[in-house]
């Protein structure tokens, strides 16, 4: 048996308990309530609590109470809160299977990939509060990774380069998703999109930001670019699209350099 040819039980021992459960490798409880709960029910209830009241509201006691059981009963299904969080993360990492585009349309594929990643943070605001504890391990989360790698399947890149680009665009999506999430939270709390972007404060900043103290910021504030005052006149789109396009430009330049290097050999 090769090093990758191990039994499911052996694989389960190599993974955190939450990841093993996400793969369906956990053993069902042998005692306690007559299996009146399922891991799916527990995770779904925890997600509902987090969606409504935030990640801090999720506890084994709160989830158990919502299901009509004791916290001790939950521990017979999921060993710890950390494992529950991992299962929650994996459960919401779902997306409609995208139609594979021609290799030449890789930029549009990347835009779709980033948009779906961002959407998870918007639909589940608590998602960005989960600690990053390591590489993705759950089956649904790994589908995201597989999708990103599929886009680069025919590119002249080695495996390290492909994974690095997936991390690059995923990191950008995470940053954008958390900013959008925070904007929605601010608006729900009584603010406005204009206040969040700074547009409400344009006039005040133009009076306060002086060229002597802020020589580089001053022209941006005066032009309205700092607070997006003239965004409708901006032909490059919004900040998120502009940033993503520059990342894609960088990937394209890297690909062109690799192709030229191969052609010169």
How would you concisely characterize the structure shown here?
Helices cover 60% and strands 0% of the residues. The chain is an all-alpha fold.
Q: In which range does the helix fraction lie?
A: 55-70%
How many alpha or pi helices?
Answer: 13
Could you say what the CATH architecture of the largest domain is?
Orthogonal Bundle
Name the CATH class of the largest domain.
Mainly Alpha
**What composes the largest sheet?**
none
* Radius of gyration, taken over Cα atoms and rounded to an integer in Å: 23 Å
GO biological process, one term: negative regulation of DNA-templated transcription
InterPro entries: Homeodomain-like_sf (IPR009057), HTH-type_TetR-like_transc_reg (IPR050109), HTH_TetR (IPR001647), Repressor_TetR_C (IPR004111), Tet_transcr_reg_TetR-rel_C_sf (IPR036271)
GO molecular function: DNA-binding transcription factor activity; transcription cis-regulatory region binding
Keywords: DNA-binding, Transcription, Transcription regulation
């Amino acid at each position: 048996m090769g090093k990758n040819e191990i039994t499911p039980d052996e694989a389960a021992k190599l993974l955190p308990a939450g990841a093993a459960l996400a793969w369906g490798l956990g053993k069902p409880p042998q005692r306690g309530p007559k299996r009146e709960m399922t891991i799916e029910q527990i995770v779904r209830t925890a997600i509902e609590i987090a969606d409504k009241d935030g990640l801090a509201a999720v506890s084994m006691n709160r989830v158990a109470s919502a299901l009509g059981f004791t916290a001790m009963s939950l521990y017979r299904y999921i060993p710890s809160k950390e494992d529950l969080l991992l299962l929650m993360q994996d459960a919401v990492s779902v997306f409609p299977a995208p139609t594979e585009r021609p290799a030449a349309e890789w930029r549009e594929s990347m835009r779709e990939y980033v948009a779906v990643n961002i959407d998870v943070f918007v639909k589940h605001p608590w998602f960005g509060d989960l600690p990053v504890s390591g590489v993705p391990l759950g089956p649904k989360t790994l589908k995201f990774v597989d999708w990103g790698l599929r886009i680069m399947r025919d590119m002249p890149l080695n495996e390290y380069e492909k994974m690095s680009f997936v991390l690059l665009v995923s990191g950008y999506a995470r940053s954008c998703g958390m900013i959008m999430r925070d904007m929605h939270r601010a608006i729900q709390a009584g603010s406005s999109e204009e206040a969040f972007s700074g547009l409400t404060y344009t006039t005040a900043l133009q009076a306060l930001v002086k060229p002597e103290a802020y020589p580089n910021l001053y022209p941006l504030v005066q032009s309205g670019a700092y607070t997006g005052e003239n965004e409708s006149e901006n032909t490059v789109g919004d900040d998120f699209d502009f940033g993503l396009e520059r990342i894609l430009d960088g990937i394209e330049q890297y690909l062109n350099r690799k192709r030229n290097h191969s052609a010169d050999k």
